[in-house]
């Protein structure tokens, strides 16, 4: 392999230091922009779900951890009061020996697990049970519209099953919540679970965990949220957030793409310089 002279190597090194330094500076600026936009996104969501859209309204104490004030006409209520009537509206997954790893090595009926929720994709997860086990555990069955909440480790993340969701049962690490959609707009509640710390802060306090955070159905029922009692106002907030977050997400995507292209350019520049495809003499 032919090597450049020491002088040429020095020229290449100086050229790359200068050019990659400029690229690195651009990358840093784009990464800072992503961080700023991400913070802005969460701030916009938190503002809307705790203060509403009308800045002229009066406010009152919320009585909720991490939420100082809410609009005076909003209600502060427990999650259990937003569910359909019935003792199984908030249902934890099967306990202990009721559902074992051996049971979930079958091939008939889906078991929704934490991966399904954390990925935001109901189809994720390979665990299944037999039809007979499904019949035995029918009280843990899932249906369209059900909220599935993670309860171990990464606690308080939520997924709502779509209308075409495959029938299944919940894993022991999930809680199934059935909402009363006459009282709460599901997508607005999803934002509270997944895009703010307002519920998570309560879950952490309720967990009392020393090694791994855990949330139980009894604690979930007692978690408190604030929202307007009028569904139309809830819809208006959700519609506003759809537009606002879409705009921010588009800017984040653009900035991340710029970072990716700059890194590709940086690598291509280094490769071209060290293989002699660029004559750096005089540059």
Descriptive tags:
283 residues; alpha+beta; Helix Hairpins; Adenine-n6-DNA-methyltransferase TaqI, Chain A, domain 2; 2 domains; three-stranded mixed β-sheet
Model description:
The chain is α+β, with helices and mostly antiparallel strands and 283 residues long. The chain folds into two domains: 1-52 and 230-283, Orthogonal Bundle (Helix Hairpins); 71-227, Adenine-n6-DNA-methyltransferase TaqI, Chain A, domain 2 (Alpha-Beta Complex), CATH 3.90.220.20. The protein is built from seven helices and eleven strands. A four-stranded antiparallel β-sheet has the order 4-10-7-8. β1 and β2 (67-71) form a beta hairpin. α1 packs antiparallel against α7 (231-274). The longest helix has 46 residues, at 6-51. It is globular, with a radius of gyration of 26 Å. The two termini are 25 Å apart. The relative contact order is 0.18.
What would the average pLDDT be, to the nearest integer? 90
Number of domains: 2
Alpha-carbon distance between the termini? 25 Å
What is the radius of gyration computed over CA atoms, rounded to a whole number of angstroms?
Answer: 26 Å
Tally of extended strands?
Answer: 11
Q: Which fold does the CATH topology of the largest domain refer to?
A: Adenine-n6-DNA-methyltransferase TaqI, Chain A, domain 2
Total of helices: 7
Helix and strand sequence: HEEEEEHEHEEEEHHHEH
Give unreliable regions as ranges: none
What is the name of the CATH architecture of the largest domain? Alpha-Beta Complex
Structural class: alpha+beta
CATH level-four homologous superfamily name of the largest domain: DNA methylase specificity domains
Strand content: 5-15%
- CATH first level of the largest domain: Alpha Beta
- Summarize the amount of helix as a percent range: 40-55%
Name the strands of the widest sheet in spatial order.
4-10-7-8
Largest sheet: 4 strands, antiparallel
